[in-house]
Design goal:
Elements: H1 2-20, E1 31-41, H2 42-46, E2 54-56, H3 59-72, E3 78-93, E4 96-109, E5 114-127, E6 134-142
Parallel strand pairs: 1-6
Antiparallel strand pairs: 1-2, 3-4, 4-5, 5-6
């Protein structure tokens, strides 16, 4: 169990690092295929809605998201800095860990302006049955119902 916890913490840290350091092409490698990646407001999540402002159901969709960021979407250049914690492993059963963690994401604009962009919690299902830990499901539940229109990069 200690090794599982360590590997889960490393996976979550690697996730934030790949986004924050603009290594988005490597981001989909942290997911199984199929997978679920969802960014949703708290009220929609609590109402049982299954679609959010960002939704991917496979690694191919994650890769398409990165392609769109790099080639198709037009948005003001910016980057993120994640602060994640505490990380709680709620259960491990049948090769899947159920994990919850909290996040704060700052958005840094090209001119250096920094603002608190998003807060919330991650609800994760992480495959732990082999030596390669990967997200089977990552749901980012935003604390606010107000979604910034500049949500281009994954949270």
């Amino acid at each position: 169990m200690i090794m599982d916890r360590f590997a889960i913490h490393e996976l979550i840290a690697e996730y934030a690092e790949r986004i924050d350091e603009d290594r988005l092409e490597e981001w989909p490698d942290l997911f199984t295929d199929p997978c679920k990646y969802l960014v949703i407001s708290r009220s929609n999540h609590e109402a049982g809605m299954r679609q959010g402002v960002m939704y991917c159901a496979s690694r191919g969709m994650l890769l398409d998201r990165v392609f769109a960021i790099r080639r198709a979407n037009l948005f003001e250049p910016h980057r993120y800095r994640h602060v994640i914690g505490p990380i709680r492993v709620k259960s491990v059963a049948d090769g899947v860990a159920t994990v919850q963690s909290h996040f704060m994401v700052a958005r840094i604009m090209a001119d250096g302006t920094t603002m608190l962009f998003a807060t919330g919690r991650y609800l994760d299902k992480i495959g732990v049955s082999d030596s390669t830990y990967r997200f089977q499901e990552r749901i980012a539940v935003l604390d606010s119902d107000k979604i910034d229109t500049l949500l281009a990069i994954p949270l």
